[in-house]
Design goal:
Order of helices and strands: HHHHEEHHHHHHHHHHH
Number of helices: 15
Distance between the termini: 43 Å
CATH topology of the largest domain: Farnesyl Diphosphate Synthase
CATH architecture of the largest domain: Orthogonal Bundle
Strand content: under 5%
Structural class: mainly alpha
Length: about 300
C-alpha cells in the first residue's frame, strides 16, 4: 500500500464497524452515512505504513489505522454539533446531525469511539506485553482530559481567554497536535521503535500539527465551503481560536513557513535513521501544496486591502 492507494483502507473503514441486523434504523442510517463518507483517508494510511515500517503485521497495522481514524471521525462529529461549532458541512456532505438529528449523531460518534478502543486493543494485544501499558497510557493521555478534551473545552471557552498566539497554539496542542501525535507516535511505540526515533516523530507531530491548524485557520478566513468541503467563517462568528485572526494573515503565513521548516529538519533526521519512514515525505509535500494554496489566497486577501 502507498499513500495514493486507498481502496483497501476505504473498504476497511466501512467494514470494521459491523452493524447488527436489528440495529435501530435511525442509528443504522447515521452510521452508514458516516462509514460511506470516509474523506481522504491520509491519516490511516500513514498509521498503516508506519506500523508496517516498525514490524507490526498487516492485519494489526490496519486495525490500528482504522481505530485512529474512527477516533478522529468521532471528534469531527462532536465538533460539528450545534453546541460546539454548529457546522453544516463536513467532507463535502451535510453533517450527520443535520441529516439525521443530534441524538443519532452523538450515538454514532460513541459507536465509533467504542469500536476504536476495541481495535486498538486488538493491535496492542498482539505486541509484546512490555509495550502495551505505555501505548494505552499514551492513547488515554492524548484523547482524554490532558489532550483532546481539554483542547476542545479551551476552544469552546475561548471568548474568556486572551486572543493571542500563545492561547491559540495551546488550544491547537490539545486538539490538532494530539491527534497527529497518535497518528505518528502510537504505531512507532507499538512497533518498539528506538527512543530517539519516537522523539523525532513527537517533534514532527508538533510542527506538522500546528502547521495543519494554521492552514485550517487560514482556510476558514480566506476560503469558502466550495473550496474546503466544510462550513467556513465559523471562527470569527463564534469567537473561536484562529491564528490568522489572532496575529494577522501575514504573520500566520510566516509562522506556518517556520513550522514547516522545523518539521523538515526533524524529518530528515528520522529518514537518516530509518529510511522506511521516507514515505512521510509524501505527506510533507501535500502540506506544502496546501500552504501554497492558502498563500495564494492570502496574497489576494492583501490585494483587497486587508491585513
Amino acid at each position: 500500500m502507498n499513500l495514493h492507494d486507498t481502496t483497501e483502507m476505504r473498504q476497511a473503514f466501512s467494514s470494521y464497524l459491523p452493524l447488527p441486523v436489528k440495529l435501530e434504523p435511525s442509528l443504522q442510517d447515521t452510521l452508514m452515512h458516516i462509514l460511506g463518507n470516509e474523506g481522504s483517508l491520509v491519516r490511516p494510511q500513514i498509521v498503516f505504513s508506519l506500523s508496517m515500517a516498525y514490524g507490526i503485521d498487516e492485519r494489526h497495522a490496519r486495525e490500528l489505522a482504522i481505530a485512529l481514524e474512527y477516533f478522529h471521525t468521532a471528534s469531527l462529529i462532536f465538533d460539528d454539533l450545534p453546541c460546539m461549532d454548529d457546522s453544516m458541512e463536513r467532507r463535502g456532505a451535510l453533517c450527520a446531525h443535520i441529516e439525521f438529528g443530534q441524538s443519532s449523531a452523538i450515538l454514532a460518534a460513541l459507536a465509533l469511539v467504542n469500536r476504536a478502543y476495541a481495535l486498538v486493543w486488538r493491535s496492542a494485544s498482539a505486541c509484546p506485553s512490555s509495550r502495551q501499558a505505555g501505548v494505552l497510557e499514551y492513547l488515554e493521555k492524548y484523547l482524554g482530559v490532558s489532550g483532546l478534551l481539554n483542547g476542545q473545552s479551551l476552544d469552546l471557552n475561548y471568548a474568556s481567554l486572551p486572543h493571542d498566539l500563545q492561547t491559540t497554539e495551546q488550544i491547537a496542542f490539545g486538539k490538532t497536535v494530539s491527534l497527529i501525535r497518535l497518528t505518528l507516535v502510537l504505531p512507532a511505540m507499538l512497533g518498539g521503535a528506538p527512543e530517539r526515533e519516537v522523539q523525532l516523530l513527537e517533534h514532527i507531530a508538533v510542527f506538522w500539527g500546528l502547521s495543519y491548524q494554521i492552514v485550517d485557520d487560514l482556510k476558514d478566513v480566506l476560503q469558502g465551503p466550495a473550496q474546503t468541503g466544510k462550513t467556513t467563517s465559523r471562527d470569527v462568528s463564534l469567537d473561536r481560536p484562529n491564528i490568522a485572526l489572532a496575529i494577522g494573515v501575514g504573520a500566520a503565513v510566516t509562522r506556518l513557513e517556520r513550522l514547516i521548516s522545523l518539521g523538515d529538519s526533524n524529518l530528515e533526521r528520522l529518514i537518516a535513521r530509518n529510511p522506511e519512514a521516507a514515505f512521510l515525505s509524501t505527506l510533507r509535500s501535500s502540506l506544502q501544496d496546501e500552504m501554497a494554496r492558502v498563500t495564494e489566497s492570502a496574497c489576494a486577501y492583501k490585494l483587497q486591502g486587508r491585513s
